[in-house]
Write a structure and sequence with these properties.
With about 500 residues, this protein is α+β, with helices and mostly antiparallel strands. It folds into three domains: about 180 residues, Beta Polymerase, domain 2 (2-Layer Sandwich); about 170 residues, no CATH class; about 50 residues, no CATH class. Helix content is about 55%, strand content about 10%. The chain has 22 helices and 13 strands. It has a seven-stranded mixed sheet. A two-stranded antiparallel ribbon has the order 6-7. It is elongated and about 90 Å long. The N and C termini lie far apart (about 95 Å). About 0% of the residues have low confidence.
Amino acid sequence: MPDTEQPGRQQHRQLSAAQRRAVSELLRVSPVADELARRFEEAGFTLALVGGSVRDALLGRLGNDLDFTTDARPEDVLRIVRPWADAVWEVGIAFGTVGCQKEAPGGDGSQTRSGSDNQRFQIEVTTYRSESYDRTSRKPEVSYGDTIEEDLVRRDFTVNAMAVALPAKEFIDPHDGLQDLAAQVLRTPGTPEQSFDDDPLRMMRAARFASQLGFEVAPEVQAAMKDMAARIEIVSAERVRDELNKLLLGAHPRAGLKLLVDTGLAEYVLPELPMLRLERDEHHRHKDVYEHSLTVLEQAIDLEQDGPDLTLRLAALLHDIGKPRTRRFESDGRVSFHHHEVVGAKLTKARMVKLKYPNDLVKDVSRLVELHLRFHGYGTGEWTDSAVRRYVRDAGPLLERLHKLTRSDCTTRNKRKANALQRAYDGLEERIARLEEQEELDAIRPDLDGNEIMQILGIGPGVAVGRAYKHLLELRLENGPMEHEAAAAALREWWAVQEQG
């Protein structure tokens, strides 16, 4: 007979392990946390570690960013922390948050940037509060509370609605967040409808935590997300973008993205993503572009070497968003997507601009989308050296990311085809490496600079110099490096033709 008590015992063991991790983590931060708590206590106020800090302590991953909550109003918090902290900032004070920095003796041998054995803590102290939106405002209205229970019930999820009162280290968990943490499920302290009405961005946070923590989202929470998805429009583009970034940079972005699509949130946040679920029928078969894109994203993540790369992940997710606009049914039953990379680059730029991404990031991601098909003209290696040089020149500083994106874009189940593509790209990278060694491809420029062009042709600054420079660059790409005299002769030959014209 199956052991019906096994799940309960397993969860009990998970809780015990979580509690042991929390004790270890809290002991590490105790010197600075207890010292700060005593200052609040002496001033007649309470202080508790709260939210993500408690959750991460229970998960054994508490860093040096500590979140506290208090019954003290912001002006009182400033009065308490200013004589104690190494630095204080008031950026979030309109929302009841005071930030500060404190260096304290380290208990784990870790070193700060200064080389000392001290730990540098980034601390935020927030007055008990609740946030809500009205139907016309994009900014949350802040009202202060008087009890920690009142504060916790208005937090986003039960796993973030736990606190540890200091310095007594009393664990406060009125909404069974510890149980949900052990079960790896996201629920809201109150009703999800009330929670999402207070702050619609919490719907995005559900998807973000699904990505970061790998947790399941409770069915009633998903149902509320579906019913209230349109409410996300009241939130500013910048806040939505920041949550989307955190989702994409998480360990399980597929889970978060699928939640956005399945609940309808993506229709308002990133509508190009659900549009990739193209209808297919028995007569016009093509790969599932939506699932393909999620797989490409995961394969790109596997190729990351120096931590999460937002540029690469965005490009991998969006590389095929031009396909719905360019789909054509051919007479032979095939489906084509001609120039979808060009259309996709334009759509990528438009969406990222709407989400208020920095210009440089918009430029890089849309450029990668535009270039992601270029390799498929390589075939079995018949590209000339000139074509390889142009590939490198067009990719510029994005070349390494383009390598990863192109390799990730192979999701075929045909092992022979997949191996052929990988061998072909291996060959291209080897050719690039050889040419780089010979010609410094990362700094391709004409063999003559502007001053030399003017001297040889006997002309002054002007449009003609630019045209001559461009001609010499084309020669450089086509033929490789030229000796100075050969380049000068080629320039004079070109100039003679221009004068005759």
